[in-house]
Hints:
It is a single chain. This protein is of the alpha/beta class. 50% of the residues lie in helices and 16% in strands. It contains 7 helices and 3 strands. It is globular and about 40 Å long. The two termini are 21 Å apart. The mean pLDDT is 90.
Amino acid sequence: REMCVMQATPTTRRRPLQVQCCSVFAPISNPSECPWGQKAFAGYLGDNKAAWKQYDATFTAKEYEGPKLEILLDQGSEDPYLNDKQLLPENLANACSNNKQINLNFRMQQGYDHGYFFIMSFMEDHFNFMAKHIC
């Protein structure tokens, strides 16, 4: 799920006509700043934190200059990973709000966690979003 956000802005920067939109559920939005992301990036990319930025959606959103990018992000308000500061969608929302090329529709879904029922409750919205922007 988070791969979409983590790859959409870097991929669009390298190949601007290939990515028009992205939809995600509860993504790890700023992996350079959360424990899970720091562990993964250190393991895959080493300790050079500057190298991590090209794979971090929040940093790439700040620098993105490609064609207009539409993003739908749903997050459950009762997600334990949100409360543990592992996901940091607010950082991505802030980065996108400062970039006129990215339109982020960030929807905090009250009462939902990180599970199956959360995703299934909003899956149709994501299919419709993708159909609107791709078809």
